[in-house]
Fold this sequence. Notes:
- By secondary structure, this protein is mainly β.
- The chain contains one helix and ten strands.
- The chain is globular, with a radius of gyration of 15 Å.
- This is YbhB/YbcL family Raf kinase inhibitor-like protein.
- It comes from Methanoculleus methanifontis.
- Keywords: Protein kinase inhibitor.
Amino acid sequence: MGSNVINLSVSLRSAELPVWNTCDGPDLSPELRIRGLSEEVQSIAVFALNPFEPGCSFTTWIAWNLSPSPLIPEGIPPQGVVTAPVNAVQGTNDYGSIGWRGPCPPGGETHRCIFKVYGLDAMLDLAPGAGKHDLIGAMRGHVLGFGDTAATYSR
């Protein structure tokens, strides 16, 4: 990413994911709030990472071609092409499934989920179900803004 990338402010409802965003509930994708999007942003891409799973960047959710909106609503269904509650395309996470997969730590442990949000200058021509490396490659040269946030979940 170049040095002229705009800093986006990304936030969740709270610093701890509610049970409904995890394996102990219906495992809905969380609501993300984004501030600082410029008019040049044509789409948003989202990565969610759980650094407690094996591998340094275990990805639990990738989505792209989201409308540049200050709110990504909760509960995006786990399918490749989504038209409600928002338009989006989702890829295959590191569990091998499409869509959000919330934290599911062993009893007595806390997992952290990191959300990385990118504002892009284009819609990406990337097939539903693509992997994180495909998405990273497709985003190259298109990033106008970046922001991140994190939340924890304990059992």
